[in-house]
Design a protein that fits this description.
Aspartate Aminotransferase, domain 2, about 375 residues, globular, Aspartate Aminotransferase, domain 1, binds pyridoxal-5'-phosphate
C-alpha cells in the first residue's frame, strides 16, 4: 500500500481545512473569518438566498432520489425535460446529466472511443479527462498546453480523423482556448472535438453560454462551479446520448441524479441566464486584479476570472499560502499532482462578490507574504 512519506518530504501532503460556515465571499475556520479567493462560486449563486430557496423548494416538490440508474427505473420525465432545456439553451441537440463533472468526463470519454481512434489532448487538461482517456481503448497523444501549432503538427502526422479533447477556460492556468484558430484547424482536419467548459459555462459568452459553440461536438459543463450546485451536464448530439446509454459503464451502473436535483437545475438555468450584472462585474474585477498584480511585479497569467500566480517551489507556495491565512485571506497552494512537480501555483479564483477593496487588501497582504519568505 502507498504511504504519505514521499508527499510529506516534498511539501506535497494535503490536509483539508474544516470550513465551519460560509457567507458569500467569506468562510470561517476555527471561529475566524477569512476572505475566500478559492471558490468556484463565480456568480455568487451558491451563497445566495434566492438559489437556496429555489433548490429547497425543488427538493420539497420532487422525489429526492432516482433510486436506480437511468436504465432501470431512474429515467424520470423531469430529468429528460430539463436536459432538453439545457441542450436548447446552449445550442446542442441533446444533453445528459451526471452526478459530477469528474464522472461525466470518465463516462463519456471512456465509452465513446475505441482502438482505431486517435485522441489528441491538451497536456494541461483536467484529471478526469486524462483518466477517461486512459480508460478508453483509443491510442492517445498529448499536445503542448494551448499550442495550436503543436496540435497542427500532431494532426498532420495522423492520416485518419482524430479526436481532440481540450478545455475552453483552463482550470489551473486560467487561459482561454483560441477558439478561432481551433475552428480553422477543425475545418482543415475535420476532427471530432470535445471541449470541457466547466469553468466557462455560466460566466463566459452571451448569457453564460460558453465560448466553444460551433467548435465542440460534445461540451462538458458542471453545476458545481458558476451554477452554484453540484452535478454535471454533457451537451451532445442525440445519437451519442443513445450510444452512452448502451456503452457507458459509469452511466449504466450508477444511480442517476434525482428528479429534485433536475428540477433545481431548471431553476438555476433561469438564475444563470439572468446574471448579466454579475458577469459584467466579474469580468471587470478580474481584469483589475490581474493588472494590479502584474503592476506589482507578480508573475500571473489568466484571461478571465481564474488568475494563476506562478510560484514553482512547493515549500515557498505553502509558506506564502500560510502567511495569507495569518492575514485572513484564504488561497490554498496548488501542488503536484494537480500541477507538474516544481510548478506550484496559487490559484486566485475571482467571483462577482469581490470588490476593488478586496483586491487591494489581497495585493497588500501578498506583497508582505512574498517579501517575508
Ligand atoms: C475542467 C474541469 N472539468 C471537470 C471537473 C470536475 O467537475 P466536478 O467538480 O463537477 O466533478 C473540474 C473540477 O474541478 C474541472 O476543473
Amino acid at each position: 500500500m502507498k504511504d504519505l512519506a514521499f508527499y510529506e518530504k516534498f511539501f506535497l501532503k494535503r490536509i483539508p481545512y474544516k470550513i465551519e460556515k460560509r457567507d458569500g465571499k467569506y468562510i470561517w475556520i476555527k471561529g475566524e473569518k477569512f476572505l475566500n479567493f478559492s471558490s468556484n462560486d463565480y456568480l455568487g449563486i451558491a451563497s445566495s438566498r434566492r438559489a437556496n430557496k429555489k433548490i429547497s423548494k425543488a427538493f420539497l416538490d420532487f422525489d429526492i432520489s432516482a433510486s436506480s440508474s437511468r436504465l432501470i427505473c431512474g429515467n424520470y420525465s423531469i430529468i429528460e425535460e430539463v436536459e432538453k432545456e439545457y441542450a436548447q439553451f446552449f445550442g446542442y441537440e441533446d444533453a445528459l446529466f451526471f452526478p459530477s463533472g469528474y464522472q461525466a468526463n470518465l463516462a463519456v470519454i471512456s465509452a465513446l472511443f475505441e482502438k482505431e481512434d486517435i485522441i489528441l489532448f491538451d497536456k494541461h487538461a483536467h484529471s478526469s479527462i486524462i483518466k477517461g482517456i486512459m480508460l478508453s481503448e483509443a491510442e492517445y497523444h498529448g499536445f503542448n498546453h494551448n499550442s495550436i501549432s503543436h496540435l497542427n503538427r500532431r494532426l498532420s502526422k495522423f492520416p485518419k480523423k482524430a479526436v481532440v479533447i481540450t478545455e475552453s477556460l483552463f482550470s489551473m492556468d486560467g487561459d482561454l482556448l483560441d477558439i478561432k484558430e481551433m475552428k480553422s484547424l477543425k475545418e482543415k482536419f475535420g476532427f471530432f472535438c470535445l471541449v470541457d467548459e466547466a469553468h466557462a459555462f455560466g460566466v463566459l459568452g452571451k448569457k453564460g453560454k460558453g465560448i466553444a459553440g460551433g467548435l465542440a461536438d460534445i461540451a462538458i459543463g458542471t453545476f458545481g462551479k458558476a451554477f452554484g450546485f453540484s452535478g454535471a451536464f454533457v451537451l451532445m448530439p442525440k445519437k451519442i446520448k443513445e450510444l452512452l446509454f448502451n456503452l457507458s459503464a459509469p452511466l449504466m451502473h450508477s444511480t442517476a441524479i434525482s428528479p429534485a436535483h433536475a428540477a433545481a437545475c431548471r431553476e438555476l438555468l433561469y438564475i444563470v441566464a439572468e446574471a448579466d450584472t454579475e458577469r459584467e462585474h466579474l469580468r471587470n474585477i478580474s481584469h483589475i486584479a490581474k493588472h494590479k498584480l502584474k503592476e506589482e511585479g507578480f508573475s500571473v497569467s489568466g484571461d478571465a476570472h481564474i488568475i494563476c500566480l506562478r510560484i514553482g517551489d512547493e515549500r515557498k507556495s505553502l509558506s506564502i499560502s500560510k502567511r495569507l491565512l495569518e492575514k485572513n485571506i484564504y488561497i490554498p497552494s496548488v501542488r503536484y499532482p494537480t500541477v507538474p512537480m516544481g510548478s506550484s501555483i496559487l490559484r486566485i479564483s475571482m467571483t462577482s462578490m469581490h470588490t476593488e477593496e478586496d483586491v487591494k487588501y489581497l495585493i497588500k497582504v501578498l506583497k508582505d507574504a512574498w517579501n517575508k519568505d
